[in-house]
Amino acid sequence: MSTDTSLVYQTDENTQRRTFLVGVRLFLAANTMLMLAMLFAYLYLRANNNGGMWRPDGIGDLSGLGMAIILVLQAACLVAVIAAIGLFHEDRSTHRVVGVIALLLALAAGVGRVWYQYHLGSGWVINHGTYTAVTEMWFGILIIEALVGVLWLFTVVLPGRRAAHPLVAARQLRGFAEYWGYLLVVSTLVFLLARLV
Predict the structure, then answer these.
(1) How far apart are CA 77 and CA 157, in angstroms?
(2) Under CATH, which number does the domain 14-51+63-196 receive?
């Protein structure tokens, strides 16, 4: 008795899209737990201030301009990805060009984050108080997440031997837009918390 297995593997495109987006959102929910753990550590250590070691003398304020540039690059990348999704069904060549622009913006934001991490200001050494330790660790996590986003966008946008099917690429761009938008909001909130609290 033979059966046609091709029917088993044919799934509705909407089902695949929804499944992929559910996976992205589950990842973001898990990542939110990590961010809440970091928030708890930050606020707990800030409230306790054991031995006056939360923020000892000699630690400079965080540069607002440097972080603002990074956040603008991230926002521009998000806008470019959303534009690429909108252009997907209209003009594939323009879609790819806009995707490459988004990739370059994401890469610039990732490099900017690494540069910012190593140029935080005077007194910013990880063992110089719990404020610097927790803040640098949190910024480090955000650097890793930004670079993961850059790699994700790289695999979707650039053509190659293993280039994704056009519908898969559109689905990946939609998932990336949600991930990058989440990262933009979290990065802004973390910076404001570290700057103001």
Answers:
(1) 13
(2) 1.20.120.80
Q: 3-state class of 110 per DSSP? A: helix
DSSP string, 31-79: HHHHHHHHHHHHHHHHHH-GGG-SS-TTPPPPPHHHHHHHHHHHHHHHH
Task: Write the burial class of residue 52 (CB in 10 Å: 0-12 exposed, 13-18 middle, 19+ buried).
Answer: exposed
The pTM of this model reads 0.83
Domain ranges in the chain are: 14-51+63-196
pLDDT tens-digit readout, 70-125: 899 999 988 988 888 777 666 666 777 888 888 888 999 988 888 888 888 777 87
What sign for the dihedral angle of Cα 4, 9, 14, 19? positive
